[in-house]
């Protein structure tokens, strides 16, 4: 501490109001006087180390929170790409040889994936989706979503991507500096980071036939890094494995020398590494935290300046005078300190009690302080923290809701398009060979099926409505297979009003018909839906007398064995035949817990039984 500050702190009759630090110094000097000054010398090192430890704990907490936010942002980008790769319709449309198609067919091909592209682009803001297509997809190029693959040749990112043995590439910094903005780019006013993923030729794995490019805002990443800094003399950044700075805090950019000094050999995505680095030419020390992102070749770095603390040394020559002055001033100090301490302790206790309630998730702001001293600033910081926590909690709840809605939309979109095609063929057949009443019946059943399937956009419905949807679906299928199927329902009526997630039973019946009854030699059979309940749970079973499943496939469905690799001769319909069952099982466990969900068994003689356990 400078001596000028110490002298200024003991001027009691200063016209300006005293801040909290000055008040504490005044109380310590007058009340404790010389004896405690010596005690402060002994406790100085302990206090400094404690403050440094608390500071690093706060920095570590800020580092972990910011790392989680950015990891979630990057994972969201990667999942957007997986949405294109894992969905059969977009993947097949991109890999189609458009040279063999008319322009009308090309338009239809683009329409198949238009919704997926628009959904990805508007999911995060700002966001940009591009698909670079090769010679086979040349007719798709419209310079809005689709670009010729040749326009990317020679760029740094394309060279790195094609030389990379992996399918994807995260790019920023020098890999994107040479990219020229193209028309219609809704990120043209923003710096961007990019994620690239390749579509390989199934006949020649080394050949790239298309590249998916997802651009997201670099400014948003740098704003997150800037908000992570709890101290003004620190910095935060993201670097690549080549030690190139990808993004950094705007107010405090990262010095190049400290990036070069980090020992990346200790790098891990499991936990943060830390070390103390000294600036060149005998400069100050920095505490540096860094951690790699899982599945991403980038590293988050945060550093804070280690400050040195001055030690106050005072020489005492006349202990008698000190004791006399201390005795005279002691009484006055007690009275003054009592008046000061009551108000200070009351305000500090108010903050302490609020922080304790904060541990119990009570996010209640404090009244705005009238005095802008350190305690007032602490109250303002607490109010700022509670406001930020409320925003983060709301964002997390909204993200969880969006994820559940996306899963339900994916399940609705997954309903086999062949069912609609076959039903239309049935209508055509009835119109030609049957009666108008038969055609009207099929059309009414199909219309009711899709109305019940949509369920007004709700995630849950009553069991009776789910049974009505299932019976409507079965009625159409039974007309298609000319009455070779039968369905029986034996569920107590008191369970009919039980709320269950939408689209649970219909996929079970569909699977029983397609992969059970129709897979048997007779091409006919029956399905029985039963239900029982106990004190807290309901058990619904869907049993068929079809071909059943092998023990290997049962183990896969029950999660006891990994899913087998898809063979080259497997059709897209077969490769995704059990996706709906897996989706249903994950939805039920997400809603109710790991003890609920689906279990699959072969019947005692033939066929398969699906057990659905849910709370009622």
How much of the sequence is in beta strands? 15-25%
The overall pLDDT, averaged over residues, is 75
N-to-C span: 68 Å
Nearest-angstrom radius of gyration? 34 Å
Structural class, by secondary structure, is alpha+beta
Largest sheet: 5 strands, mixed
Helical segment count: 17
Question: Can you count the beta strands?
Answer: 17
Helix content: 40-55%
Task: Extract low-pLDDT stretches.
Answer: 6-16, 179-189, 309-320, 568-577
Which shape, going by the Cα principal axes? globular
Quick gist of this model?
It is built from 17 helices and 17 strands.
Please, could you describe this protein's structure?
The chain is an alpha+beta fold and 616 residues long. Helix content is 49%, strand content 18%. The strands form 4 sheets. The chain has a 5-stranded mixed sheet with strand order 2-1-5-4-3, sandwiched between helices. Strands 7-6-10-9-8 form a 5-stranded antiparallel sheet. Helix 13 packs parallel to helix 14. The longest helix is centred in the N-terminal third of the chain and has 67 residues, at 20-86. The protein is globular, with a radius of gyration of 34 Å.
